[in-house]
Design goal:
This protein has 219 residues and is α/β, with parallel strands linked by helices. It contains eleven helices and six strands. Helices cover 55% and strands 14% of the residues. Helix 2 runs parallel beside helix 3. It starts with a strand and ends with a helix.
Length: 219
């Protein structure tokens, strides 16, 4: 796995690079600005770009804008965005623009090495990885949506874990239930969110993006 890291904090940037190299991953480039990140991505053609949300010169949304631009240039590029805080508008701006190969994690998650590496691998393989705290706050902002109110507390738990990018077996393990129970809950979620099966729409993705988009409208 070839990786570019864009982070203006030199300690975190070098720490990430050391961690990933120790795991046998290939860090092909680093940058401390969004512009530098795009240059590194264009030059090295990585499989994954890890970008901080806030970078020079304004320390607002440079990383998100760089991530969106990087995906525009290279649609197959996997992108994992890191943030010090939960920023719902940035999360939904990024994640509602695509259905795979995208992640949004809080920086504190990096210290939980196995969780961070698992999220990175999910994103690199075309999945999604959304920080549980981001998911929790998005659900809070979306609580007035009528269709989401149809869900039982357990179904909301399942949908939240789906949003984090977990598969059925991983959800079952987290909730201490069987794979069959998870499958049943997911079928109920699809029905309550009025998501009929079609050849054009992945209902699992649609269920997650439904409440992400709702949260973005309310932010």
């Amino acid at each position: 796995m070839r990786i570019v890291i864009a982070e203006d904090d030199p300690l975190l940037r070098e720490g990430l690079a050391l961690l990933l190299r120790a795991e046998g991953l290939d860090v092909v480039g680093t940058a401390d600005t969004a512009e530098g990140a795009l240059d590194a991505i264009d030059t090295h053609k990585p499989d994954v770009a890890i970008l901080d949300v806030r970078m020079p010169p304004t320390h607002t949304d440079e990383g998100v804008r760089a991530a969106v631009e990087a995906r525009r240039r290279s649609p197959d590029l996997a992108v994992l965005v890191l943030s010090a805080y939960v920023e719902q508008s940035f999360a939904t701006e990024l994640l509602t623009g695509g259905v795979g190969g995208l992640g949004y994690l809080l920086k504190e998650r990096v210290g939980r090495v196995e969780e961070f590496l698992d999220a990175l691998r999910r994103v690199a393989s075309g999945g999604t990885a959304i920080d549980p705290e981001v998911v929790a706050q998005l659900f809070t902002r979306s609580h007035q949506d009528v269709r989401l109110e149809r869900l039982s507390p357990r179904e909301k738990d399942v949908l939240a874990l789906m949003a984090e990018g977990l598969g059925n077996s991983a959800i079952a393990e987290k909730l201490f239930v069987t794979d069959g129970a998870v499958h049943k809950h997911i079928r109920s979620i699809f029905a309550k969110l009025d998501l009929a099966p079609t050849d054009q729409v992945d209902r699992r993705v649609a269920a997650v993006l439904h409440y992400l988009e709702d949260a973005r409208r309310r932010s």
